[in-house]
Amino acid sequence: MTRIEDITLWRLRVPLIRPYHLTGVVLSDLDVLLAEACDDEGRKGCGEAVIIPHYTTETTEEGWGFCCVRAAELVGEDTATAKLALEPHRLNFPHAVTVMQVAIEMMEGHPALEPPSEPTRVPLLMAVMSQDPGDIPSEVESHLKNGFKTLKLKGGWDIEADLKRLAAVQRAAAGAAAIRFDANQGYTKEAAMELMRRIVPDGIESIEQPCAANDWEANTAAAAAAPVPLKLDESVYELADIDRAAKVDGCGYVKMMLVKRNGLTRLQEAMERIRAVGLSSVLGNGASTDVNCWAEACVARHTINNAGEMNGFLKNREQLWREPLKFEDGAIVLEPGFRPTLNHEMVDRLSVTKEHFASSAGDS
Question: What is the rounded distance in angstroms from the CA atom of residue 258 to the CA atom of residue 262?
Answer without folding.
Answer: 6
